[in-house]
Amino acid sequence: MVKLEYAKELVHEAFPAPLIESDSLDVDSIFVSGVPFWQEQLFYQENGGVRPWEFDRAKACRKLGKQMTALLENLDAVLRAHEKPDPAIVRDAQGLFLSVLFWSNGRPVKLDQLEQAVSELELKPLNCYDRLTYCLERGNTFLGFRGLNELMLEQRKLIAKQG
Known about the structure:
This protein has 163 residues and is an all-alpha fold. It has helices at residues 38-46, 57-80, 87-103, 114-119, 128-137, 142-162; strands at 2-3, 19-20.
């Protein structure tokens, strides 16, 4: 295994680079479990990828929303059983929300200056950055999970209103 080196725009303490063989991943996939921001990685490093934030972003956000629903159901069950969730699943859920947040605004995810990037988005939940920061810091807790779930629900409503 080789540690994937994230592009500088994707470097954030909440998302450590995964140990994977990047050449074995499907370049057309908009979601790769364990590798949040796969399409952004291709975009920032190679100016490649399918750029779902540019082309049919509503469909891409719906696909990610389905993935998110499955992950949130899993996290809910684990947390209700008073068990500690798998950090990889927590990161996937956080990454999915960030992808939906940025893609629904027609932009790739940008983590290196997250506060500024979120402030520039037009379509976002109220107090998005502060709430997101809380979820990123406490993603493995029930309150962090609930916060992420609420952010996702609010973003989905905003997308529906806009569409």
